[in-house]
Amino acid sequence: MPTSNLESYSTIAISIADEIAHIQLCRPQEMNSMITAFWTELPEAVRYIDEHALARVIVISSQGKHFSAGMDLSVFQNMSASFNGEPARRAEAFRRHVLKLQDAFNALEQVRMPVLVAVQGGVIGGAVDMISACDSRYCTQDAFFCIKETEIGMTADVGTLQRLPHLIAQGLVRELAYTGRNMMSQEAQSSGLVNHVYADQETMLRAVMKIAKTIAGHSPMAVAGCKEMINYTRDHNVADSLNYMATWQSGMLQMPDVMEAMSAGQQKRQPMFENLLPKTVD
């Protein structure tokens, strides 16, 4: 499998085993802050995994005490330096810059496989944007979540305000955004932001990998279909979503995976499914 491209990143470390790709933010001394390279490396990595069908599930975690402090100060400094020149052209260039940052997390939604994220400590600013784009979220007891951008004089612009209202109550989103306060782990679970809270990172990763293994054991076509439909119905009405579902099934529902699942159940064994096809040919 073509995995060499995944071994040269400076902000993330990647391992793949048992159909699960584990992406770790790997700058713990800097609280895994999101430097310029991160905004290119993360989307490139997840799209590479998807394009080459290297895994059936992606798990994202981080090294160190905190998941991520969000966007690194150096990125803000670079943005500040760009605020010069003719206003219209400067604004157009900055708009493209924001769209590029947004695309880093759009990739988490766009890949065919589920993306699970396991967080500990601080999940701050851009890190909230990031986890909001994942399929499922899990955290440790010491985790806290903060829409930090408001405190530093700006509006969060990389996905938090667009995705979070689909995950938790809108009034709570507004409170978190307006105040910039910390949401602690138990509130995050009770509000529906995270699926489960664990005592520590080791216990959390063990449990999340078990969930990922269960997902990886199912038909990749069925799981990819679930992700496609859930994302689609979030952004469309029920009638349009049902129509899209019928169209999807007319082409994607084939018998080999169904028959294999049924046979495996009858024979009390693990089913064996083909991986998704790569999107590109080497």
Automatic annotation (TrEMBL):
A single Gene Ontology MF term assigned here is: isomerase activity
Primary subcellular site in the record, as a coarse category? other
* Biological process according to GO: fatty acid beta-oxidation
Its UniProt pathway annotation is: Lipid metabolism; fatty acid beta-oxidation
Q: Which UniProt keywords apply?
A: Acetylation, Fatty acid metabolism, Isomerase, Lipid metabolism, Lyase, Peroxisome
Gene3D superfamilies assigned = 2-enoyl-CoA Hydratase, Chain A, domain 1, Lyase 2-enoyl-coa Hydratase, Chain A, domain 2
Spell out the subcellular localization from the entry: Peroxisome
By its UniProt entry, which InterPro entries does this protein fall under?
Answer: ClpP/crotonase-like_dom_sf, Ech1-like, Enoyl-CoA_hydra/iso, Enoyl-CoA_hydra_C
GO CC entries: cytoplasm
Protein EC: 4.2.1.17
Family, similarity comment: Belongs to the enoyl-CoA hydratase/isomerase family.
Q: Entry's PANTHER family?
A: ENOYL-COA HYDRATASE (PTHR43149)
Provide the protein name: Enoyl-CoA hydratase
Q: Which organism is it from?
A: Brumicola pallidula DSM 14239 = ACAM 615
**Top-down, what is the taxonomic lineage of the species of origin?**
Bacteria, Pseudomonadati, Pseudomonadota, Gammaproteobacteria, Alteromonadales
GN (gene name) = paaG
